[in-house]
Amino acid sequence: MKIGITGASGMLGTALVNHLSKTHQIFATSRSRGVEGQNIKWDCFDLTSVTLLDQWLKTTKLDIVIHCAAIVSVDACENDVELAIKLHIKTTELIANYLDFNNSRLIYISTDSVFDGEKQKAYSESDLVNPLNVYAKTKLKGEKSVQLMSKGLILRTNIIGWTQEESTSFAEWVLEGLINDTPLNLFYDVHFSPLHVDGLSLIIEKIIENPIYGLYHCASVDSISKYDFGMQMAKVFDLPSSNINRISVKEVDFKAERPKNMALNIEKISLALEYVFPGVIDAVLLMKKQHDKNNKLPY
């Protein structure tokens, strides 16, 4: 198949390019080139340019687009609302409309942050959304155009893993702090259900081969607090945890408000794919395995 990947030099984009290029023709796009290889064609341009995006879609004639591109910094979205609207809403709408008209498929990577975090249990797809910040609000509005498609899929998720770009993922930030013994303020009252990026890539490959459409939560089978996640990282990587400070999210004055509970219920997608999803600890163990194999620590 001819598969387009936006945000292809990011953490998920890189994993998808690596994984899917083994069996599919990949058309990768981002602001800068990422991993090179057989079956990979790069086009670097500003995705918010309607003219350039339209040209890319018309030229490539894709079977599927996996739309990963997003402003990953929640606070950056508060500082540049216009850009967040362009990238998360307008760009998604253009891609969705074009693909729907041409009977092609779209996999839109959404977020676990669309809820207000007040629920005590994991959120299911039927729960009411109530985004608290610009990032979540614009990502949620991006979902709307995908829902109107005949072959549109929304995956709400949260990922950890190794990044290829200058930016650092949450797990890498924690690990860097543990290695350098710098203070880490981690929240005991914020919970999430992260998947390893390679695990999500595998699931997306399953979906490409056996399509599902609509809205699905795609995360680990369980959830963990940010504090306990840090402690697990220390344990798995055999590092001291004395520099981890257990604090409440209320103690930090963020520019963007964050939900406390981002845990996702994955029963719907697990049944649809007939797949047993991994737990959070599996994602941490895979990071350790990859570190040991590649000696991947830039710190």
- CATH class designation: Alpha Beta
Could you tell me the strand content as a percent range? 15-25%
Q: Count helical runs.
A: 10
Oligomeric state of the chains in view: single chain
Helix content: 25-40%
Number of strands: 13
* CATH homologous superfamily designation: NAD(P)-binding Rossmann-like Domain
- The second-level CATH architecture is 3-Layer(aba) Sandwich
At the fold tier of CATH, the topology name is Rossmann fold
User: Mean pLDDT, nearest integer?
Assistant: 93
* Major sheet attributes: 7 strands, parallel
**Count of structural domains:** 1
CA gyration radius, whole angstroms: 19 Å
Spans of at least 5 consecutive residues with low confidence:
none
Distance between the termini: 38 Å
Strand pairing plus helix content: what structural class? alpha/beta
Tell me the series of helices and strands, N- to C-terminal: EHEEHEHHEHEEHEEEHEEHEHH
Question: How are strands sequenced across the largest beta sheet?
Answer: 3-2-1-4-5-6-11
Mass-distribution shape: globular
Features:
10 helices; about 40% helix; 7-stranded parallel β-sheet; Rossmann fold; alpha/beta; about 300 residues
